[in-house]
Amino acid sequence: MAEEKETISTQAHSQEGEANEALSSPFCRELRTKRYFFLQEIATEARQLQGPSNHCWCRLTMQTLGPDREYVHPNHCGPGRACYRSAFETS
Predict the structure, then answer these.
(1) Global pTM exceeds 0.85
(2) pLDDT at 84 > cutoff 80
């Protein structure tokens, strides 16, 4: 119960102090795979995106290399990468 109250107060504090900061999603919003088009919600695990071919591409470059010239893959396209954009961003 104490943990639940702590989590709620942390969330409330975060929402007040960081209203303009976008939430991070586990994968970049520009990451594409064949399975991406069949998802009904935002992917939270790499296995939800990866198919048997393991082929991925960036929506911005339409290639297997992202704008930063690094390979595109669910394990690499996340927070911390220079070209990462959260799926929760509005613009």
Answers:
(1) no
(2) yes
